[in-house]
Amino acid sequence: MLDPDQIAGLFTRDGRFLCARWGRPVVPVIFGLADETLDIFRAVTRAALAHAGLPMAETDPEMGANMLSFFVRDWQELADMPDLERLTGQGELVARLTTQAADQYRIFRFDADGGIRACMNFVNMGGGLAEAHPAGLAETMVMRSLLTFARDVEPSRQVADLIRAAYDPALPVVAHDESHALRLAARLPA
Question: From which domain of life does this come (predicted)?
Answer without folding.
Answer: Bacteria
